[in-house]
Amino acid sequence: MALFSKLFAKIRGGAISSGDWAEIEETLIASDLGAKNAAEIISIAKKVKAEELDTAVLSALESWLSNDNRALATNLNRPITILIVGVNGTGKTTSTAKLTAYLKRENKTVLLAAADTFRAAAVEQLQTWGNRLGVEVVTGPSNGDPASVAFDAASKAKADSFDYLIIDTAGRLHTKSGLMDELGKVRRVIEKTLPIDEVLLVVDATTGQNGIVQAKIFMESVAITGLILTKMDGSARGGIALAIERETKTPIKFIGTGEGAGDLEAFDSTRYLNGLFQ
Ligand code: GDP
Questions:
Q1: For ligand 1, what atom is nearest to the CA of residue 116?
Q2: Is 54 in a helix, a strand, or coil?
Q3: Ligand 1 center to residue 90 CA distance, Å?
Q4: Per residue in 181-229, pLDDT tens?
Q5: In which band, very low, low, confident or very high, does the pLDDT at 236 lie, cut at 50, 70 and 90?
Q6: How far is the centre of ligand 1, averaged over its atoms, from the C-alpha of 204 (Å)?
Q7: DSSP strand E in the chain: where?
Q8: What's the structural domain count of the chain?
Q9: Of ligand 1's atoms, which has the minimum distance to the CA of residue 90?
Q10: What is the CATH number of the domain that holds 186?
Q11: Whether 110 contacts 164, CB under 8 Å
Q12: Which range marks the domain in which residue 102 is found?
């Protein structure tokens, strides 16, 4: 993506007019870095000598990223429970499947729960993934209580000693308080059996700054432990990862890079930052 290396080559190239600065700032904004962050980068770049540019900007970017642990809990002597939440269409179900494939590659056993009982298609989609990946999917009756599916799944995960339980929840709009209440109920019933280790919010990278607004509103209702940033393959504007961590102070744990089961990567912040400067 090399966003900064290209821009900085221009700065190092010599005298920069105010038009050039404006152009550089626009390019940063177009990368989904956000207007405020882009302005900050420009102000740093204007202050330092050319040879200090990379170090100065890199240290600002590092300070924007979350210091929280990005790894999932592992090897507890009980199932590790992961709740997948987000707005419909962001890639919740696909990310649930990809995370399953990721854990299976690490020889972990995974039980899935299709708690989106409102959308028959969502349940079917997860079942199809379950068949493909060879993992069991706990479901309930169509339009049934999602909390009851979650309860059954937690009981089964515990009784059968699965390593992980991943629960795909109904996609909610932040405006629908009923759905948010229901998410709270899903949480409470699971916690009767197992602690919830992770609540991962799925955000579609192609929605840019809008995705950040969505995430922040979401966080007012649910305690999120990490983000899955999907569709990074479809977004040339990699600034979104920096912007969303800075704004939400929540670590990106995984990025989605395609529609296949293998298209999920643990987010490596050092690699990501290096990529911006390569
Ligand atoms: P949900 O409604 O949030 O459960 O969303 P889905 O999992 O059904 O995903 C919506 C669409 O986005 C599907 O067509 C997925 O294949 C696609 N999708 C999900 N993640 C990614 C990704 O990382 N990259 C790409 N290119 N497409 C994705």
A1: 4
A2: helix
A3: 6
A4: 788 889 999 999 999 999 999 999 999 889 998 888 888 878 899 999 9
A5: low
A6: 8
A7: 80-86, 110-115, 137-138, 164-169, 198-204, 226-230, 252-256, 264-266
A8: 2
A9: 3
A10: 3.40.50.300
A11: yes
A12: 80-277
